[in-house]
Amino acid sequence: MAFELPELPYDYEALTPFMSKETLEFHHDKHHKAYVDNGNKLAAEAGMADLPLEEVVKKSFGTNAGLFNNAAQHYNHIHFWKWMKKGGGGNKLPGKLEAAFTSDLGGYDKFKADFAAAGATQFGSGWAWVSVKNGKLEISKTPNGENPLVHGATPILGVDVWEHSYYIDYRNARPKYLEAFVDSLINWDYVLERYEAATK
Ligand code: MN3
After folding, report:
1. Using an 8 Å Cβ cutoff, are 89 and 185 in contact?
2. Cβ neighbours around 48 below 10 Å, total
């Protein structure tokens, strides 16, 4: 299946002032597009052009670094755009999600602190995650394009901490970006959708 750059699920100004039009133009139109274009080229060269994206990610991990980096980043960004929305964030989680965050992550406040700490302490480029592993939620961080899929888990929420995701709006203040992401951007409905798909 050829990789395709998805449209953003909102307009380029929708996430201001927390994420600017300029950031979305560079991040979606340039960075994500490059992962798609390079991923298609490398998947074809590896004979994996017809495989579903998740399989390309898992099969290329540890065996084909170039393909893995681009395919995993394509997967990560498809979800990242949907993990945000205008007027999102905050502690009003859908009931089922709130129950799971309470039992597995110690509640919203602890989630917020631990998720932000994971993002802030990821040295260099990478991601912070909430994923489902063996039916339970866990918080983790990964370098570069790596994601929980290759560690036997299903990501239900992730935040991009590559500098390209925050440098235009926050300069070097990654913790401020992470705070804004949690307080004002997370699309909890999409997190719930991913949680239900991962636990059914
Ligand atoms: Mn990115």
Report:
1. yes
2. 20
How many C-beta atoms lie closer than 10 Å to residue 101's C-beta? 22
CA distances, 173 to each of 77, 103, 119, 123, 179 (Å): 21, 31, 12, 14, 10
Task: Determine the pLDDT at residue 200.
Answer: 87
Tell me how far the alpha carbon of residue 28 lies from the centroid of ligand 1, in angstroms: 8
Ligand 1 mean position to 103 CA, how many Å?
Answer: 31
pTM (two decimals): 0.97
Ligand 1 center from residue 128 Cα (angstroms):
12
Q: How many CB atoms lie within 10 A of CB 30?
A: 10
Q: pLDDT averaged over consecutive 10-residue blocks of the chain (200 residues)? A: 95 98 98 98 97 98 98 98 98 96 98 98 98 97 98 98 98 98 98 96
Domains delineated in the chain: 21-82 (1.10.287.990), 95-198 (3.55.40.20)
**Distance from Cα 177 to the centre of ligand 1, integer Å:** 14
CB 90 within 8 A of CB 183: yes
Taking the C-alpha atoms of residue 23 and residue 165, their distance in angstroms, rounded to an integer, is 7
Centre of ligand 1 to C-alpha 56, Å, is: 19
Distance CA 49, CA 10 (A): 29
